[in-house]
């Protein structure tokens, strides 16, 4: 899933606060952590909610800032986002110096490789399913009968 360029909290910081790291990569770092109980709060450093064009719009915005002299360097292309043909097209546009009005957005959208959508849907669906399994139908009661509030996921680990 797209990982934040501006936010990078390391695994040590999460674990020092008692927050278990659920998903991490060697390159990307922590992608997902949770509250100590494993489900009440989920922390993402990425953007599972991003649509297919979200990163391209951010890249175009940052490129415009660069072209207007508000940034010292051209932005990096989002990694693992465009096909090889899309990367070539984006690099050719950047090297051409063409105005931002000539940004080949439509052509680049054809070269977007959305790899995270199914994973994002599964994450949210599984989390909502877990909340449903543990939460009492009576809104005044937090957990279903038989759920240990100190270890709400304990029953599921058996």
Automatic annotation (TrEMBL):
GO biological process: amino acid biosynthetic process
SUPFAM superfamilies: Class I glutamine amidotransferase-like (SSF52317)
Keywords: Acyltransferase, Amino-acid biosynthesis, Transferase
Lineage: superkingdom: Bacteria
GO molecular function per UniProt: homoserine O-succinyltransferase activity
Matches recorded under Pfam families: HTS
PANTHER family (alphabetical): HOMOSERINE O-SUCCINYLTRANSFERASE (PTHR20919:SF0)
Name of the protein: Homoserine O-succinyltransferase
Source organism of the structure: Cardiobacterium valvarum F0432
């Amino acid at each position: 899933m797209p990982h934040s360029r501006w936010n990078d909290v390391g695994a040590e910081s999460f674990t020092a606060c008692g927050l278990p790291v659920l998903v991490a990569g060697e390159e990307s770092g922590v992608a997902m952590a949770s509250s100590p109980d494993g489900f009440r709060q989920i922390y993402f450093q990425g953007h599972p909610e991003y649509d297919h064009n979200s990163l391209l719009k951010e890249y175009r915005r940052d490129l415009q800032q660069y072209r207007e002299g508000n940034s010292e360097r051209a932005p990096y292309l989002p990694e693992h986002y465009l096909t090889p043909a899309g990367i070539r097209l984006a690099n050719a546009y950047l090297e051409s110096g063409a105005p931002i009005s000539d940004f080949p957005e439509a052509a680049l959208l054809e070269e977007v490789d959305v790899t995270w959508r199914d994973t994002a849907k599964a994450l949210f669906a599984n989390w909502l399913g877990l909340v449903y399994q543990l939460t009492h139908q009576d809104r005044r009661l937090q957990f279903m009968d038989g759920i240990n509030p100190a270890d709400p996921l304990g029953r599921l680990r058996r």
